């Protein structure tokens, strides 16, 4: 005699995703480390969604990154100003975009002008914002502000005493090749160059389309 199979219980409908709203609240905060460039706080927090917990946060004033572009000789494949310097945290020499810390009370644009001159000697007549992003928002407050600097004029660099920097004006196509070959490992440089390249390609496509339509 065949036994009847028991009916499977009805599947429960999937739970609705929680929609997070509002802002977190810092219930208490104390400084556990104070350095020259950043400081660390231990915060007790109440976050959206009902989460309460303890967070160790690296506090930083933010940084400015300069994507300096020289399109005078070849607008189709403009030069990108890279610097090459030793980075102790990475334990190696890296190719990067020029960048630096924003001083307390300083805005990104004056900081960008200052850092471009200090590290490279270049000055730019045209400045615009490319993008801002958080470097590592799980534990770091540092916001990275990438500025596009154009119409460049070379000059004398004035780096800090502990900065040894090489300058490399490199065609965009070569920078992209280095990126895809894994030769550029710096995050801000990857974000800045790839975003600029996408916008540059889109603008060239729009110009070609406009010419065909004329």
CATH class term of the largest domain: Alpha Beta
Classify the helix fraction into a percent range.
10-25%
Which structural category fits the helices and strands?
A: alpha+beta
Instruction: Give Rg in angstroms.
Output: 24 Å
CATH superfamily name of the largest domain?
Nucleoside Triphosphate Pyrophosphohydrolase
Based on the coordinates given, report the CATH architecture of the largest domain.
Alpha-Beta Complex
Q: Any idea how many domains? A: 2
Mean pLDDT: 92
Percent strand: 35-45%
Q: What is the number of E strands? A: 10
> Termini, distance in Å?
84 Å
How many helices does DSSP assign? 3
Q: How is the biggest beta sheet arranged?
A: 7 strands, mixed
What fold name goes in the CATH topology slot of the largest domain? Nucleoside Triphosphate Pyrophosphohydrolase
Structural features:
10 strands; alpha+beta; 3 helices; 214 residues; Nucleoside Triphosphate Pyrophosphohydrolase; 7-stranded mixed beta sheet; extended
Structure description:
This protein starts with 24 loop residues before the first strand and ends with a helix. The chain has 214 residues and is α+β, with helices and mostly antiparallel strands. Helix 2 (172-180) crosses helix 3. The chain is extended and about 75 Å long. The chain folds into two domains: 25-59, no CATH class; 63-211, Nucleoside Triphosphate Pyrophosphohydrolase, CATH 3.90.79.10. The protein has helices at residues 108-120, 172-180, 187-213, and strands at residues 25-34, 39-47, 51-59, 63-70, 79-87, 92-96, 99-101, 123-134, 143-153, 166-171. The protein contains three helices and ten strands; from the N terminus they run βββββββαβββαα. A hairpin with an 8-residue loop joins strand 8 and strand 9 (143-153). Helices cover 23% and strands 38% of the residues.
């Amino acid at each position: 005699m065949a036994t009847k199979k028991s009916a499977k219980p009805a599947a429960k409908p999937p739970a609705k995703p929680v929609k997070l709203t509002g802002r977190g609240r810092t219930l208490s905060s104390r400084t556990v480390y104070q350095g020259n460039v950043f400081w660390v706080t231990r915060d007790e927090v109440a976050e959206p969604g009902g989460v309460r917990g303890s967070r160790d946060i690296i506090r930083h004033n933010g940084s400015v990154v300069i994507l300096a572009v020289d399109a005078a000789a070849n607008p189709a494949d403009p030069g990108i100003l890279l610097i090459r310097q030793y980075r102790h945290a990475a334990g190696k020499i890296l190719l990067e975009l020029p960048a630096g810390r924003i001083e307390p009370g300083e805005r990104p644009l004056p900081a960008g002008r200052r850092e471009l001159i200090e590290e490279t000697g270049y000055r730019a007549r045209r400045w615009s914002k490319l993008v801002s992003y958080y470097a590592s928002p799980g534990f770091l407050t540092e916001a990275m502000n990438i500025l596009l600097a154009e119409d460049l004029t070379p000059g004398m660099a004035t780096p800090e005493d502990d900065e040894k920097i090489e300058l490399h004006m490199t065609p965009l196509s070569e920078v992209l090749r280095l990126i895809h070959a894994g030769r550029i490992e710096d995050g801000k440089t990857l974000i800045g160059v790839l975003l600029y390249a996408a916008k540059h390609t889109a603008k060239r496509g729009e110009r070609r389309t406009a010419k065909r339509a004329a």
